[in-house]
Design goal:
There is one protein chain. By secondary structure, this protein is α+β, with helices and mostly antiparallel strands. It has one domain. Helix content is 53%, strand content 15%. The protein has helices spanning 3-15, 33-44, 68-75, 78-86, 95-108, 116-119, 124-133, 150-172, 177-181, and strands at residues 20-26, 49-56, 60-67, 140-141, 145-146. The strands form 2 sheets. A 3-stranded antiparallel sheet has the order 1-3-2, sandwiched between helices. The protein has a two-stranded antiparallel ribbon with strand order 4-5. It is globular. The model has no long low-confidence stretch (mean pLDDT 94).
Length: 184
């Protein structure tokens, strides 16, 4: 798995300005996907950064990169706990329980579980907005569909874009992701 692929899709979570990012990859392009993820986890886990396959089929894998402390804090917010509890998640589940429940929801529901936005740090009003209205009443689209505070989300999207550009630039200069995020 290439540093540039991970950086492009996950720079904000790597940098700690977002609890998690997800990305999909073709297994044909990464035939050693599982061993690559094991190696990445060995290197990044010491900094609280984890790679986890949420689901996979013969052709693709959906991977979540997350910062465990930041994601635990996010999932512990009362409004997020209420949302997830209403979707069948354990009320006082620890992070592994919540990720396990997300994996189960992905595998079991016919439509993608839109509460995943809670894991990705989306504003609660935007998560509910999408669950309740799908594409209707959407005020803006960026990294997610915005139903609430457009200006606040636009600023957030600008931060994510700037983060992505900065990390990709460092990679172009010859740095590695491990060198950028795991250096002592």
């Amino acid at each position: 798995m290439t540093d540039s692929l991970i950086a492009y899709h996950c720079a904000p979570a790597l940098a700690g300005i977002k609890p998690a990012n997800i990305f999909s990859c073709r297994k044909s392009e990464y035939p050693k996907l599982h061993s690559d993820l094991t190696a990445l986890n060995k290197e990044f886990n010491k900094k609280g950064i984890y790679f986890e396959i949420l689901c996979e089929c013969e052709k693709r894998a959906l991977i979540m990169l997350y910062r465990s402390a930041k994601l635990s804090e996010q999932l512990g917010m009362p409004e997020i706990k209420m949302l997830l509890s209403g979707c069948g998640y354990p009320e006082d589940g620890e992070l592994p329980d919540m990720i396990g429940a997300l994996k189960s929801r992905i595998a079991e529901v016919s439509d993608f579980p839109h509460e995943i936005g809670a894991f990705l740090g989306y504003p609660i009003e935007d998560i509910y907005g999408f669950i309740d209205h799908k594409n209707e009443k959407c005020l803006y689209t960026g990294y997610w569909r915005v139903y609430g505070d457009v200006e606040k989300c636009k600023e957030c999207f600008r931060r994510y874009d700037a983060c992505r550009r900065a990390v990709l630039k460092r990679l172009e200069m010859g740095h590695s992701l491990a060198g950028i995020f795991c250096a002592a």
